[in-house]
Write a structure and sequence with these properties.
It comes from Toxostoma redivivum. By secondary structure, this protein is mainly beta. About 5% of the residues lie in helices and about 40% in strands.
């Protein structure tokens, strides 16, 4: 019973409050009819456009009684923000660290497969990885994980310095907690402090974000240069070589 004037906008609020970490789907259908009750002159025939016919309601005389707009809604449950994991390494050194990430509220559902709408929530590119968790689980759970950066500038600084690989997984059926253990490699070339996030998505539904803080401290002193004076008011010269790691 909402009246809409020509060129007027209609805002439809949508509230999403998930109770569990699973995939939710709904459809918003808008049915528009003329205020005077008359039909549109479009007549449905055997040669009519099939896609167009799906979005109309037809009267007894075959003319168009109403027009439908159908908007699918895909809801992805996202876990609350987790505490940051700090990975600290001295510049010009290489660190391998095991990081345990707890996924709380995982629902085992082998039939749940995310569609295009859900997969678009996480920008999964070729560098993303898929892993199955079957330890003690009645169903096969698949996870997508990706290291996401806050900006292109941070990506250019960290992408070649950080490596991440899933090495172990554990499934607790009573608490419904999946533990993913990652091996993180950090090899900074200079002091820095940058942030990233691990985005994990389960095919049965649910999205988890784990912030990571990468800190590279000052490197060790390369060498000590001793200059011996040859006399007062006389110059002493010591030569040293510096090698650039880039072009």
């Amino acid at each position: 019973g909402i009246r809409l004037a020509p060129k007027e906008k209609l805002e439809i609020p949508v509230l999403f409050m998930p109770a569990e970490m699973k995939i939710y789907k709904a459809v918003v259908v808008i049915h528009v009819m003329r205020e005077n009750g008359e039909n549109w002159p479009y007549v449905v025939t055997a040669k009519s456009n099939t896609d167009l016919n799906r979005n109309i309601t037809v009267a007894e005389n075959g003319k168009t009684q109403g027009i439908l707009w159908i908007y699918p809604i895909n809801g992805t449950s996202e876990a609350p923000q987790q505490k940051s994991v700090v990975i600290r390494c001295q510049a010009r050194q290489r660190l391998e660290q095991r990081v345990e990430l707890l996924l709380i509220g995982v629902l085992p559902d082998a039939t749940a497969v995310p569609d295009a709408g859900n997969s678009a929530v996480v920008d999964v590119d070729e560098s993303s990885n898929t892993s199955e968790v079957t330890d003690g689980s009645p169903a096969t759970l698949e996870f997508l994980y990706e290291l996401q950066y806050q900006s292109d500038e941070i990506r250019s600084q960290l992408e070649s310095l950080v490596g991440m690989q899933l090495v172990e997984k554990e499934w607790d059926t009573k608490s419904r907690i999946v533990t993913l253990i990652f091996n993180v490699v950090f090899a900074p070339s200079k002091p820095m402090r940058n942030e990233a996030a691990v985005i994990i998505q389960c095919t049965a539904g649910g999205l988890w974000k784990f912030p990571l803080v990468f800190i590279a401290t000052e490197p060790e002193v390369d060498d000590v240069i001793n200059i011996e004076a040859v006399g007062l008011n006389k110059e002493s010269i010591v030569g040293l070589k510096l090698t650039s790691q880039t072009r």
